[in-house]
Specification:
It contains 13 helices and no strands. Helix content is 72%, strand content 0%. Helix 2 crosses helix 13 and helix 3 packs antiparallel against helix 10. The protein is globular, with a radius of gyration of 24 Å.
Length: 293
């Protein structure tokens, strides 16, 4: 490495393993998916040559494509609004150094230590109308006369899955917002109180503006994770009832491993990737404009 200073050489040595990992596990698979999306590529037969743009037209012409897009967007909006609001509320509740604050922070964050697949299996058992405890408790309390099918209708299946996701991730997003809250100088709150500002005015004019980077990170993670929802619906509903809870990622799975068509599955993956990149760019631009104003 002639011409490089010792510091630059050390930096290059530190960066090389990461660059190799990114190339092997991201760039090369991305190029392979792009090639698949342009080719006739059955799962068990391999590449049969280019068929552009047939995979993309087949993907968007599917009877499940637009219903899956609408459902995924609806789910994303509901989960993002509920999660962001609840996480902010929890962060505000445990912000102060009170005797039980550490305990409640741990309790709120604890569900985040459980894997999403494991949490989905847990709630699948809880929601079961025959063996699950929730339905029997409601019957004993006299609130219902018959076993409750929490996943039996499109609306109940959606809301039951949203409840699972909120339970699982509220503590994680609370932690992100809590870190942002603790970075706000306490002197600003004192100055606002001395000026006669109410709690609502302090929250609106001090807390929210300074918490904006943490809110933006939470929003980015929540939107991206919701658009890529798969585990919870695959385990809880299998896309039912009547394909009403099929997400876009479930469509990719169906095309690849049920219809054995990697070409169409790859085309759907490229579409999802493009949408995610666009949304991330718009979110970063919105954050930058807010910081400049």
């Amino acid at each position: 490495m002639q011409g490089l200073s010792p510091r630059a050489t050390r930096g290059l040595a530190y960066a090389t393993p990461t660059a190799v990992l990114v190339t092997v596990f991201f760039l090369l698979p991305l190029l392979l998916v792009a090639q698949m999306s342009l080719s006739d590529w059955p799962l068990l037969a391999g590449d049969r040559g280019l068929n552009t743009p047939e995979n993309y037209t087949d993907a968007t012409d599917s009877t499940l494509f637009w219903p899956a897009v609408r459902f995924t967007l609806l789910y994303t909006v509901i989960v993002t609004v509920v999660l962001l609001g609840l996480a902010l509320l929890l962060a505000l509740l445990v912000q102060e150094s009170r005797p039980a604050a550490g305990f409640f922070r741990t309790v709120y964050f604890l569900p985040g230590a459980l894997g999403l697949a494991s949490a989905s299996l847990l709630f699948w058992g809880l929601y079961s109308p025959t063996t699950g405890p929730l339905s029997s408790v409601l019957e004993r309390l006299g609130l219902v006369d018959d076993p409750v099918s929490f996943l039996g209708t499109p609306t109940s299946a959606l809301l039951s899955t949203v409840f699972l996701v909120v339970w699982k991730f509220a503590g994680f997003y609370m932690l992100i917002l809590l870190v942002g809250l603790q970075r706000i100088p306490h002197e600003l709150y004192e100055a606002a109180r001395m000026d006669g500002a109410s709690r609502a005015q302090i929250f609106r004019r001090v807390t929210l503006p300074l918490l904006q980077p943490s809110i933006a990170l939470t929003l980015l993670l929540c939107v991206t994770g919701s658009l890529l929802a798969f585990d919870q619906f695959f385990i809880l509903t299998k896309g039912g009832p009547d394909n009403s809870t099929v997400t876009v990622v479930q469509l990719i799975y169906r095309e690849a491993f049920q219809r054995l068509n990697l070409g169409t599955a790859a085309a759907l993956s490229i579409i999802v990737l493009a949408v995610l990149l666009l949304l991330n760019v718009l979110q970063f631009r919105g954050l930058r404009r807010a910081d400049e104003s």
